């Protein structure tokens, strides 16, 4: 999964269904979520997955009011349509994504 910056963010989320993972390198639950997201990404090749390092781009976390990580925001055609906070299993992510596909 590509780590994107504030510069790339709006372009990435503007096309189709996109999952943005807000994370930090020091965050244990973020590290646990990473392989789950990789697995979901392989199952849903039409969904774009990207990551935002909140330590490198705190303005993006502020823009969406993110108070804790890991935090996923699901976008459809540029609009934030759902969010998931904290570590969750693959089934929860798939359940949130399926209506958007």
Automatic annotation (TrEMBL):
Residues the UniProt record annotates as site (Contributes to redox potential value): 28-29
What species is given as this protein's source?
A: Faecalibacillus intestinalis
Q: Which GO terms describe its molecular function?
A: protein-disulfide reductase activity
Task: Read off the InterPro entries from this record.
Answer: Thioredoxin, Thioredoxin-like_sf, Thioredoxin_CS, Thioredoxin_domain
Q: Where is the active site?
A: 27, 30
An example Pfam family from this entry, by short name, is Thioredoxin
Q: Which gene encodes it?
A: trxA
Q: What is this protein called?
A: Thioredoxin
- The disulfide bridges present are 27-30
